[in-house]
Write a structure and sequence with these properties.
The structure is a homodimer.
Chain A lengths: L3 H14 L4 H16 L10 H9 L10 E4 L4 E5 L5 H19 L1 E9 L5 H10 L3 E6 L20 E5 L7 E5 L6 H10 L8 E2 L9 H6 L1 E2 L5 H16 L22 E8 L8 H13 L15 H11 L7 H10 L2
Helix pairs in contact in A: 1-2, 4-5
Chain lengths: 335, 335
């Protein structure tokens, strides 16, 4: 039997026990359960204990006074007052959408926030309103800048979305590491190996041991190109917004010495700014690419977001199976 | 002896002979000679004959009536009327800068343009005015979408720049192919081999033969991630602006059946929208990263744009040595 609703209720209850107001608890539970449904377990319930621990240790503020400053009709700034990231990001994307609906473009910079889960989750809010969107956020050190043997950049995703005027939006949500840190973390928890070529141990040697990889550094995609993209994201979401940057974002699992002060940047645009027939154009674009001859074994050329949507549909009415350690976490957090 | 100035004069003369007005000839010559100085020969004089051929064949309009439409205080649209790309892009970036200076953000979409040379060249115009900038452009088919054996995306660069409030701006200008198509083209002209793993021949087999690679497909960085980024750039610069997209941009060297109708998108922001001390913050960011322990053999961790600037300084007062075929081109074009 599908346990999505009961799990969501449980997560809301746990957050309320940890002093979040009802509305904020709901926002967090929605995002976390959504990550489970799309199969992004590294961004789902496996993080719940961490969020609650950070609230207990007073490095996440469960009752933030979030300040929203209007800079122009198109631009807003949010000081999240160390709220849990989900709440800051939810307010942020909603303001970017409002601004874009009014003026054609909406830009929102957020500081003093925390880990907000999946970028694509916020991008989807914009594409649902038929808007084009960029989401940037930085993250704790995981990737070594090109030329260095010490990690400093987060896995710093680049996230871009556009409505396709069909059921499934185009949502690219790609970290600039070869694989997501969350996946390495899950592998470490479950004792699984990671692929070759994605990480070095702390001595700078290639490793397939997930625990050693977490102590070492992850490799960026495409050498200096990926390193440059990670640096760009750190500048946009950290330097530009007023958030932490340059390796100062604390690891939420290991470092309780203070708030993360992560920065996020959302940029939203109306698709019909320059053309009257964007919906026709994007459909034609996707059609042309899907029609291309495929390499052996490939059934369909998918656009970014289609795979996730397939997982969502497949899993929506299924039972979410939880590993024993997470069942244990939930029990303790609800005690 | 330095021949930069005389070469620039010669290129201006050649463009004027091909019916461009003096001002436009100067804009083109500046961009082309700049590419030579920074060592991007694939975007320099090696393309001059192609531009002139396209003018002769009436697929570049030497006397365009460029229309500039103000959509809002922040947003402008440019219909380049099949101008040479340099001219459209020069007007475009200048308008994006003006809009950003006035409102904090400037967005400019350009359609009916052509190949504009190096994205970083336009980004630099914005960083010189102490502005943050994105430049997107699409290009003729060169990269196969993930899952396909036929190329469709251009090498579609992602270009991001920020002032560093030091002599050298941070300018990331990275194609999403493993190497630039221009470099393969130069290798094909000079009979050199290309590295392994960057391209497939027309039968889908890996090749190090530059000519075979040009007939085949280039590989995107990082598989589906690079393919997704190339698709994003095609949407932003083509679908969104009104330019050609989805593989319809013609190869400027091989296809004279009509104008390219390339689209460009420029997005410019004031760095102090959210923080009062951006200059201090970006300097601190770069300092922290440069201080990291380096891997063996690396003297300095460089930020994107530093290498190009080094080449610029080194070459500025040197003679530009031209291969025989380009000397020949120049002679014929000036005849």
């Amino acid at each position: 039997m599908n346990n999505t609703k009961s799990l969501k209720r449980l997560v809301i209850k746990i957050f309320k026990k940890h002093n979040l107001i009802n509305e904020h608890s709901k926002i967090c539970a929605e995002a976390i359960i959504n990550a489970e449904i799309v199969g992004a377990h590294s961004h789902g319930l496996s993080r719940l204990k961490m969020y609650c621990d950070r609230i207990k240790k007073k490095v996440i503020n469960p009752r933030p006074k979030i300040k929203i400053k209007k800079i122009s009709k198109s631009i807003s700034q949010i000081d999240a007052n160390n709220s849990i990231g989900f709440v800051a990001a939810d307010i942020g994307i909603k303001h970017a959408i409002i601004n874009a609906k009014k003026t054609g473009i909406g830009l929102v910079g957020i500081k003093n926030s925390g880990h907000y889960g999946l970028s694509g989750y916020y991008a989807e809010q914009a594409t649902k309103k038929n808007l084009i969107v960029f989401c940037f956020t930085n993250a704790p050190p995981a990737i070594a800048p090109h030329g260095s043997k010490k990690s400093l950049f987060g896995t710093n995703p680049i996230c871009f979305g556009t409505p396709t005027f069909s059921k499934v939006p185009f949502i690219l949500d790609t970290s600039v590491s070869v694989i997501n840190r969350g996946k390495i973390r899950v592998a470490a928890r479950t004792g699984k190996k990671i692929p070759e070529g994605v990480a070095l141990d702390k001595y700078g040697k290639p490793t397939t041991n997930a625990k050693k990889a977490l102590e070492g550094v992850q490799l960026p995609i495409a050498g200096f190109r990926g390193s440059g993209l990670a640096w760009m994201v750190d500048i946009l979401s950290g330097v530009f917004t007023g958030g932490n940057h340059g390796g100062k974002v604390k690891d939420p699992f290991d470092d309780f010495s203070g708030p993360q002060n992560i920065g996020h940047l959302f940029f939203v645009m109306k698709p019909n700014l320059f053309v009257g027939n964007y919906s026709k154009r994007i459909k034609e674009n996707i059609k042309r690419i899907k029609r291309l001859p495929k390499i052996k074994g490939v059934k369909e050329i998918l656009y970014p977001g289609q795979n996730k949507q397939k997982r969502y549909k497949k899993n929506l009415n299924k039972k979410i199976n939880l590993p024993a350690n997470i069942v244990e976490d939930l029990k303790k957090l609800n005690a």
